[in-house]
Write a structure and sequence with these properties.
With 167 residues, this protein is mainly alpha-helical. The chain has a single domain, classed as Ferritin, core subunit, four-helix bundle (Ferritin), CATH 1.20.1260.10. It is built from six helices and two strands; from the N terminus they run H-H-E-H-H-E-H-H. It has a two-stranded parallel ribbon with strand order 1-2. Helix 2 runs antiparallel to helix 5, helix 3 packs antiparallel against helix 6 and helix 5 runs antiparallel to helix 6. The protein starts with a helix and ends in a 5-residue tail after the last helix. The N terminus is likely disordered. InterPro entries: DPS_DNA-bd (IPR002177), DPS_DNA-bd_CS (IPR023188), Ferritin-like (IPR012347), Ferritin-like_SF (IPR009078), Ferritin_DPS_dom (IPR008331). It comes from Kribbella pratensis. Keywords: DNA-binding.
Length: 167
């Protein structure tokens, strides 16, 4: 074993197959882009909200955006841990995000809540669809994704409550 391979085996978590490492890194990159875009869309809606409960929705969106940014950081750090270099620049997010953009206009408070809930649900569903294959490649990354899904699903519940829907 060469010095370089010993160093790499010590520095990077072991995965059975180097192709799995690249695939997991690619999955994390897409999720990073979605979370960053979700936070940007959240800020856009934060500035656009109008209506009788706009202030409370405005403040709640700030909390959601903060959580999405924290989740993006956790995802990016997992990618780095596995040897990937994540790209969270605006050009990468614009090119790779799967989150549906919003129309730039004033929007009633209930519509803002509904739009955010719909987008958070879509991101959570895409992650859920990949949990099995990610877990087969790397259980630690699967655990990170489970945390992300759990947070997004809790946020969906809190958004439903804002709309007066049953939990």
């Amino acid at each position: 074993m060469t010095t370089e391979s010993v160093a790499n085996s010590v520095q990077l978590p072991p995965l059975d197959n180097p192709h799995e490492r690249a695939a997991v890194g690619a999955e994390l990159q897409v999720l990073l882009q979605d979370l960053i875009d979700l936070s940007l869309i959240g800020k856009q809606l934060h500035w656009s909200v109008v209506g009788p409960v706009a202030r409370s929705v405005h403040l709640f969106i700030d909390e959601l955006v903060g959580e999405w940014r924290e989740l993006a950081d956790v995802v990016a750090e997992r990618a780095v841990t596995l040897g990937s270099v994540p790209d969270g620049q605006s050009s990468a997010v614009a090119a790779g995000s799967r989150v549906e953009p919003v129309v730039v206009r004033s929007m009633p408070d209930h519509a803002v809540v509904w739009e955010l809930g719909r987008r958070a649900a879509a991101v959570a569903e895409r992650i859920r669809a990949r949990l099995g294959s990610i877990g087969a490649a790397d259980l630690v990354t699967q655990d990170v994704l489970i945390k992300v899904v759990g947070t997004l699903e809790k946020q969906q519940w809190l958004l439903r409550v804002q709309l007066g829907e049953k939990a």
